[in-house]
Amino acid sequence: MARSQWGSRLGFILAAAGSAIGLGAIWKFPYVASQNGGGAFLLIFIGFVFTLGIVMMMAEMALGRAAHSSAVGAFRKMGGKHWALVGYMGVLVGFLILSFYSVVGGWTIAYIAKSIGGEIISSDAKVLGGIFTGFISSPSEPLFYHAAFMALTVGVVLGGVQKGIENLSKFLMPALFVMMLVLIVRGLFLPGALDGVAYFLDPDFSKVSAKTIIDALGLAFFSLSLGMGAMITYGSYVEKDTSIPGSAAWVVLLTTVVCLLAGLMVLPAVFAFGFDPSAGPGLTFITMPAVFAKMVGGQLFAVVFFVLLLVAALTSAVSLMEVVTSFMIDEFHMRRVQAALLMASLMFVLGVPASLSLGIWSEYTLFGKGVFDLLDYATSNVLMPLGGVLLALLAGWKIWPQIEVQLAVGTRSSALWLPAMKLTCRYIAPALIGFVLVNGL
Ligand code: PHE
């Protein structure tokens, strides 16, 4: 069977942006930025995104197209049998991420239900905080929604990702933008909101520590879907004559804009309602309902907001599932249905302790972190950057000519930046990421 391809360049860009833009940009970014002092974090994050981020994005897409194969196969074909290990690590990372990602994806479904039921329409911070904490720490309710989210993800992957995802992304990504703009405008008119904007944009470098830098790097990898093979897999579906640098630049730009918009959407409201900006994972789920409660037709906006959060999460989850599924199909010659169902069941099971670690199992910790936090930390802050270093080394030293050929396609410029990219892959990325990683451990 001929390998699937994207229908158009725009479709590819929006599908890749769909993978990138997800809970990372909309849910994680605002609270991680707040925990790390706002503006200074933003600058460091943007610094990583537009240097390492864009280079890694191009390298992954180029590797995927050159090898015409998903993660493990791509590393094996291009690098040799030992390099296949990096591909295996990527598949494992995809597996680990989706197991806790699906728990949060489930929260978005639950919040759609709670918005429809009117349960969370309140402007009282204490009430909303209580509802959220009560919900995520309850032993059974989040598991039900976790299962529902995983089932939805499997459903999309089974239905065929290219046409399904591509068309879905083309329709829903623009809708996401519009909704965010509406909510930002409303949020900015709340009394006290401008303090939040100032907090978000004013860099306070006294707050910068080793942790800030590691968190920024980890979040950059996580929110751009880098270092684990998703962009390799998506790149393998790109047509021969599509420009990779141009597409990668769009994906990085769109994702960064959504991160900024998410900060502007959540933080002003946090200040207006007197929440603690370093409140953590609950930030989006607690503060946004408070904004809705103040809006005319707020309940409708709440439903729409959580639907869009679900959609953002779903297009990302599908790319994670595709990495794991295509691996089982290619390596074990499984049928797509079998592969997807088997993997989804296993990931569901691992998600159970992750979810319970936010409630009844919170006393079980390793390195001071519960299962949920451990999965999140190990993947974003350790394994994805490590995958990035290894990919950079392979691209820069071993297969640079093949990468260069892919990047030159459809690019009109005299390719002045190609030597800079080679230098980044060879020295800068490994040194910089390596330094941050070693300091972090
Ligand atoms: N980028 C996605 C997000 O921000 C998460 C993700 C990571 C998706 C890795 C695919 C691969 O939500």
TrEMBL record:
Question: Can you tell me where the transmembrane regions are?
Answer: 12-33, 39-63, 83-104, 143-161, 173-193, 213-237, 249-275, 295-318, 339-362, 382-400, 420-438
User: In which domain of life is the source organism classified?
Assistant: Bacteria
Q: Does the keyword Membrane apply?
A: yes
What Gene Ontology cellular component terms go with this record? membrane
UniProt subcellular location:
Membrane
Q: What is its main location?
A: membrane
Membrane topology (UniProt): Multi-pass membrane protein
Keyword terms, alphabetized = Membrane, Symport, Transmembrane, Transmembrane helix, Transport
GO molecular function: any one?
A: symporter activity
Record PROSITE patterns? NA_NEUROTRAN_SYMP_1, NA_NEUROTRAN_SYMP_3
Q: What family is reported? A: Belongs to the sodium:neurotransmitter symporter (SNF) (TC 2.A.22) family.
**Protein name in UniProt:** Transporter
